[in-house]
Specification:
Layout lengths: L3 E5 L4 H13 L3 E7 L5 H5 L4 E3 L2 H5 L6 E4 L6 H10 L3 E5 L6 H14 L3 E4 L6 H11 L6 E7 L22 H17 L4 E7 L10 E8 L2 E8 L9 E5 L3 E4 L5 H6 L18 E7 L2 E7 L7 H13 L7 H20 L3 E2 L2
Parallel strand pairs: 1-2, 1-4, 2-3, 4-5, 5-6, 7-10
Antiparallel strand pairs: 7-11, 8-9, 8-15, 9-10, 11-12, 12-13, 13-14
Helix pairs in contact: 4-5, 5-10, 7-10
Length: 348
């Protein structure tokens, strides 16, 4: 196994909590370089890492094969383009880009230069989502009539000193959290026929959107996707109803918190959820009424990096194709259009 020399373009939350620990845990990657404008924290945690201060130091380093673009959203397209043009493979932090044309330009460029381009849609590897998907794939509630997905938080203040709380292109909760949940919906069901969204700011003094309520219409059923920073008492994460029954799941995947606590993704107990958080299934299977808990599938963020390794070194298909993340951006644009017009707009 020849490790892929990898560079991170920042060492904020996504770099320190997610990418660096996952890269460090996978023997197929070698974290060689981190771009930090002033701090040296990355070197404190990873002594063998080289700290650089300018983007061009990463771009011009021929030993770097893979660049993780985990910078502010509006820099994703230009930074990813520079890396691709320099002959490097690229992982872009979600959201892929701010606009669909930006996404299209990166997809075309990656094909032109023959390099791997993917997006860190990590919550495809959440245990709760993997469990929900298995319930759906096994048709345990029969024909779906409604599905509801939540990604709620309680943050009734404006976090200081972060670009995420400043108004601008690609800012706000829909790009931040919505890019995860809309990706999950698109993986399961594809683009909707109609999009009806309401997006706005609920926190006093807020400069960016901090809630959304989205209704996506499909043939015979609809998906509700909601998020708010003002949910102090959590409700279910997923609610699934079908003609035969229902599945309800509380609680969020354990991996983010485990990474924040410095736990290793290679540990044997990684992302194993306690029984008290297992989802509830109430349904009919044949002539039987079945009611009880569904064990949560363990999450596995390392699965993303395993796939990237296989794509780069072995030529295997990407799990997260950039075209899929491009569709997430298109759906976000449709949600904003619907909210602005205060009516449903066509999807697919």
């Amino acid at each position: 196994m020849t490790p892929i020399n990898t560079a991170l373009l920042s060492f904020g939350m996504s770099g320190e909590v997610f990418h660096a620990p996952l890269i460090n845990a996978h023997s197929g990657f070698n974290l060689t370089t981190v771009l930090q404008r002033s701090s040296t924290r990355a070197k404190d945690l990873y002594p063998n890492v080289k700290i650089v201060r300018q983007l061009d130091e990463v771009i011009n380093d021929k030993s770097i094969e893979l660049v993780v673009v985990n910078t502010p959203n509006d820099t994703h397209q230009p930074y990813a383009a520079k890396a691709l043009e320099a002959g490097k493979h690229v992982i872009v932090e979600k959201p892929f880009t701010v606009t669909t044309p930006e996404a299209d330009s990166l997809i075309a460029l990656a094909k032109k230069v023959g390099k791997t381009l993917t997006v860190f849609q990590s919550r495809r590897w959440d245990g709760d989502y993997l469990t929900l998907k298995r319930v759906i794939d096994n048709k345990l509630v029969g024909k779906i009539v409604e599905i509801e997905l939540h990604y709620d938080r309680f943050r009734n203040y404006i976090e200081p000193n972060t670009w995420k709380e400043e108004a601008g292109p690609g800012k706000g909760i829909l790009y931040n959290l919505g890019s995860h949940m809309l990706d999950q919906v698109l993986v399961m069901f594809g683009m909707p026929k109609m999009v009806d969204a309401r997006i706005g700011t609920q926190r006093p003094g807020g400069k960016v959107d901090d809630y959304y309520d989205i209704r996506l219409q499909y043939d015979g059923f609809h998906a509700i996707v909601k998020s708010s920073y003002l949910v102090r008492e959590p409700g279910p994460r997923y609610i699934l109803h079908g003609v035969d029954g229902s599945f309800v799941k509380y609680g969020i995947d354990l991996q983010e918190q485990a990474l924040k606590e410095g736990k290793s993704p290679k540990s044997t107990s990684w992302a194993i959820e306690g029984k008290e958080w297992w989802g509830t299934l109430n349904t009919s299977i044949g002539s039987l009424h079945v009611e009880g808990a569904v064990e949560t599938v363990p999450g596995n963020y390392l699965g993303f990096y395993q796939n990237v390794y296989e794509a780069v070194r072995e030529g295997k298909a990407l799990a997260v194709k950039p075209e899929e993340s491009r569709d997430v951006i298109r759906l976000i644009e449709l949600c904003y259009e619907s909210s602005r017009l205060n009516k449903a707009v066509p999807g697919a």
